[in-house]
Design brief:
Elements lengths: L1 E4 L6 H10 L4 E4 L23 E4 L2 E4 L1 H11 L12 H25 L6 H22 L11 H10 L2 H4 L7 H11 L2 H16 L1
Parallel strand pairs: 1-2
Antiparallel strand pairs: 1-3, 3-4
Length: 203
Amino acid sequence: MKLYFIPFACSLATRIAINEAELDAEFVQVTPGQPLPDGRDFASVSPMGYVPAMEAGAVTLSEGPAVLTYIADLAAEGVLAPAPYTAERYELTKWLNFISTEIHKAVFAPLMTGRSNEGAREWAKGQADKRFGLLSAHLDGRQFLLDQFSVADAYLLAVLNWCEFAGIDIAQWPVLKDWRAAMRQRPSVAAAMATEMPLREAA
């Protein structure tokens, strides 16, 4: 299995998941605008040019929630996701989609590109209040989004790492700030961040 990543992008969640489940994977670093190490255009793997993307035999996937779900299904049952066809599994799907659409795209995407104008940036910051408030209320008194660690936690941690870069003061939501700090101490998370930080600094 090949996993395509950019250091400290949302693809960090895939590295956390692989660490957590003790799975084997080859990580291939993507440099935007440049060919892959094997000479191919990254668009041949991920048509939108986004990470994470994955190749596993005949299966090629892009879009973070899909890649994370695939990894979760490779792991031992219960390690990264609840069992299929359970209410808890659909709850996981809900959170993966909430993080993808309401946090990643609605809040952070306009703040993480130089192509946004000031109006778009202010709009995105305004979206944070309700969305971060909902997350904060849900995580108050909880360790994880579900009853145990899942790929949704890995994804949420990856995007909350962007707060300072995006100009969002996470201290406005003490529950989220404390949750992020606790998650960063988790061995799978700490190892993933330690691996990617030098790559980010060198990029």
